[in-house]
């Protein structure tokens, strides 16, 4: 009798253990020009990859479930699927742009791009006008922000323009009118010769070696007590007052 009850219990337990079935899931609704896939590429084609920004990347062979661009479309930096021929326009971002969407920074001024590692001393119209006459010490720090596109420089109004569009400034040499027996020198002495020094009226002092821009006496001439450049042979001790 006990064995019959055990057998009946086992039979009852067996009938109370139904097989659980997983109901089919409905694929999500994908945005325009996208389709859902169970096994998409982990590195699908994008505007960046087409523009060779990521040409040497290594792509693991794994399935990614989700929405992907339809055939004939690639994803731009705004996350939208567009035809490949639209890459490189404003919607696809040009080569040289950086991750504006990750940073939340967008460059909307003409001829500017976002740069995650721009120069701390970018080229400007002023630096071009000086022609490198003033040595510039620049740190190698990366500066994040909007910079001028390649081939453009920033003018005095903060706009990015072509170098030939920079306003023409007279150079120091052109704007400085030197006197008789004088000539303009971008790197003259900080302690030029004078009649007083040559004649021993004033002692010769130690002179630091720095460039001084301005008008200097021509070779063979020195400045006299009146501030005029005269031949060294014309230097004379000033008469006592």
TrEMBL record:
Q: Which superkingdom is the protein from?
A: Eukaryota
Name the UniProt key words of this record, in alphabetical order: Disulfide bond, Protease inhibitor, Signal
MF annotations from Gene Ontology: peptidase inhibitor activity
Domain TIL residues, every copy: 30-87, 109-166, 178-235
* Keyword Disulfide bond (UniProt): yes
Keyword check for DNA-binding, yes or no: no
- Kindly name one Pfam family recorded for this protein: TIL
- Residues spanning the signal sequence: 1-21
Name recorded for this polypeptide: Chymotrypsin inhibitor
**Source species, please?**
Culex pipiens
